[in-house]
Structure formats: C-alpha cells, structure tokens
Design goal:
single chain; 295 residues; 11-stranded parallel sheet; two-stranded parallel ribbon; elongated
Length: 295
C-alpha cells in the first residue's frame, strides 16, 4: 500500500491468513493513514515494522501492533503533518526504535503506554504535551531529556521503575509535571531529574520512597513554588534542595516530608532569592544553618 496517499484506515479481515507474515516494513508508508487495528487477527511471526508509516500525511495516529514486533526503526519518521500520537501501547518486546519519529513534528502524546526499554523522546524539538502516559519499565533515564518545547506532563509510573535519572533534564519550557501519586516503591535514584528546567514551577504528587536518593542537581535552575501532593520520605532525598547559589526558588511555604526526614541542616544555605521560611514539622531534629547566607 506504499504510496496510496488517500488511504486513511487499515485493518485485516477476520479470516485473513497471517501466520507466515514476518514483516510490515514500508507497508503503509506515504499514505494518509490515521488508524490501524490488528487486534482481530493473530500474528505468530511478525517481527518488524520498520518505516511502516514513514512519509505519511496524517495529523494524528492511533495504532495497535502485536507484541511480536521487535523492530520499530523509523516507524513514524518523516511524517510532515503528524502532531499527535494517541492510544498506542509500546510493548516490552520492542528491541530497537532508532529514529522512530525522526523529522515528524509531534506535539502531543495522549493516553499512551510505554513498557519498552528503548523507546525515547530524547532531544525531541517539537513535543509540547504528555497527557495520560503510563510508563512501566526499569529505567526512565533521559526518556524526555532535551525536549526543548515540552510544557506539561501528566504521567503515571508502574512499580518496575527504578531509575528516573535525567528523565526531564534540559527541558527549558517545562512548567508542570504531575506524577499522579505513583507509589514508585522500587525507585532508587532520581539524579538530575529536572536539572536546567528553567520554567518549572509545579511538581505535583511525586512520591519518594524511604530508600530513594539523589544528588544536588535535581532542581538546579527550577523556580519551584508548588509541591502539592508530593511526599519526600527519605533523608537522602533532601540533597535535592541543597543546591546553594544555583537555586532559583523564591518561596516555599511547605516542605512535604515524611517521618524519616529529621535533618534539614544547610537545606537552603546560600539561596540567593528565597524570601519566605516554612513551617517545620515536629519530627525534625536538626535545622542547623538551614537558611544561612540567604540575603
């Protein structure tokens, strides 16, 4: 069907014989396809969908591919009008997804699910909104880092996630992230998660378990003023606030910490812009130099 420019939807007949199909490479390239549903037939051997939609003219895309498909290379590359990917599940069996949306101006990711270890939006220049994303695989490391147009994120993490390092690092347009109170029971680190996000004011419903840790670069350059619904349950996670003169925080009236956090010493030392202090919970035992050298 490559080159059928008016083709908009595609599916197989219920009685289709697809047992021996191993490839869909280029099958729907250079069309106007916007929806593909293959749920009514069973592919036993289908393994590759390289360039499946490459060069197509749709504005939105919604598709379902069998979990047997391991190769997503360039699957949505060079689609000049593509703005939204919605209701797509990216399975854990995807082994390679090189340049999967290369040169396609995707602005919105809506109600998708990512279970793949390789699918990434790193350094994407057009993505603006992530809405209703479910993410559940071991590492979130750098999945959205360098997305310079990204503004808002609504994401729910599953229990498999352990590493959030640099997940949203270097996203200067990012204003808000809602974690939807994902428990993240196995998260061990979130180093540099928001480093350099110079528009980020709001982090909501971020739950940090008692074993998670991070360095002092998590919030560098972030003018945070809203932590509604967050809960920081590990002492080690307090390192995220010890960024000294690199802080852009001006006001923080409440710090949502759990019972395990007892030491707030030097927490806001050398903050150049902070103007208000916060209410300190009764279980905190050490506040030495908490606001030292805050002009």
């Amino acid at each position: 069907f490559n080159g059928m420019t008016n083709l908009e939807e595609f599916s197989f007949h219920d009685d289709s014989y697809v047992k021996d199909v191993v490839s869909m490479d280029y099958l729907l390239a250079n069309t106007s396809i916007s929806k593909v549903d293959l749920t009514n037939v069973y592919f036993e051997r289908l393994s590759t969908a390289r360039y499946l939609f490459q060069g197509s003219n749709m504005k939105t895309i919604e598709f379902y591919l069998p979990e047997t498909v391991a190769n997503y290379n360039n699957i949505l590359s060079d689609c000049p009008n593509l703005e939204e990917i919605k209701n797509v599940t990216f399975s854990r069996f995807i082994a390679t997804a090189a340049n999967w949306i290369n040169n396609s101006p995707v602005k919105k990711l809506t109600n998708c699910q990512i279970y793949s270890d390789v699918l990434s939006f790193v350094n994407n220049p057009t993505l603006e909104t992530v809405e209703g994303l479910i993410f559940d695989t071991n590492t979130f490391k750098k999945r959205f880092s360098g997305c310079t147009a990204l503004k808002t994120v609504d994401i729910t993490f599953g229990d498999k996630v352990t590493d959030l390092t640099s997940g949203f690092e270097g996203c200067p347009s990012l204003v808000s992230v809602d974690f939807n109170s994902s428990p993240l029971p196995n998260m061990t680190t979130f180093n540099t998660l928001f480093n350099g996000d110079t528009s980020l004011t709001t982090i909501n419903n971020f739950i940090v378990n008692e074993n998670a840790s991070c360095g002092r670069e998590v919030l560098i350059g972030c003018p945070i003023d809203n932590l509604d619904g967050c809960q920081f349950n590990s002492q080690a996670s307090m390192e995220m606030f010890k960024m000294g003169s690199n802080s852009c925080i001006r006001e923080m009236s409440e710090l949502p910490i759990g019972e395990n956090v007892k030491d707030l010493s030097y927490l806001f030392t050398d903050y150049p812009y902070i103007t208000h202090d916060l209410t300190i919970p009764n279980h905190v035992t050490n506040v030495t130099s908490m606001y030292e050298n805050c002009p």
